[in-house]
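Translate sequence into structure tokens.
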Amino acid sequence: MNLARLDMRQTYAAIQMTSNRPVLEMRQGRADLSITQGKAEMTQQTTAGTLEIDSSVARSESNLKGAFELGHYLAQKGEQGAREAAMNIARDGDRLMRIENGNPIPSIAAEKVNDPYPIVEMGYMPKSLDRVKLTYTPADVKIEWNVTPPQIDVSLTPTDISFTPWTTEISLRQEASLEMWPVGGMYDETR
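Result follows.
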């Protein structure tokens, strides 16, 4: 038995999506940097050091005396020699005045002829290093700096930014459809 039925053909709808990614572009030129700085100035003040050498004691011991000191020394020696000579003459005169105690002339002559032997000693001139006095004052150095601070200039190039936003396009690629037709029975088209 041929019963009627309904055949259907369905096509689903299809959508299409096309997306474009966002694009960000940045361009920036170089920055210009300039640094200028003046010269640094240095000032230096120096007080010279001094070295004082006092060798008067060593020179005196070495018979290297100045004219004034040598004159004073010889005057003292002359006065001392004159006193000793006057004393010796007075003593000899006193002995000669007492001639009644015996003849003093041979003993006076023997004293004048028989001088003691000279004594020889070895020594160093000056006798020691402490005879020369050294006084040293070190130099005084003062250094001052006058520094000019640097001047720094920066010139920036502005940034060029371009942006393409995200885009999405939606379209219908295939429309939905539904077809129905009767089959069988009196509707059979195949007969």
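Note: The longest strand covers residues 167-174.
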